[in-house]
Design goal:
39% helix
Amino acid sequence: GWSVSSFYGEPIYTHAGGLWGMTTFLAFLPRQNLAVFASNNQMTVAPRAIVYQVLNDHLRGDKDWIAIHAEMVNKRNESAQRVVAEASAARQADSRWDD
């Protein structure tokens, strides 16, 4: 489905997609008569960050969307690593997969 929101006060319509090995992001700013699409061959948020950065630059916005998305990804990775480390530490050391 389509998401409907606002971006720097402008109505924005977005749609994202992904399959193993690729992600896509599409955004329309109807009042600006502008659409931006990005796709990649990785499972990352890069297309979203790139599209938002292009829209930001078009509207003369003041955010660094690449950095915002990179920080979000780094926080999620750190959190995931912490959860895996905690689960590994709590694991019964002599347990085996084939038990």
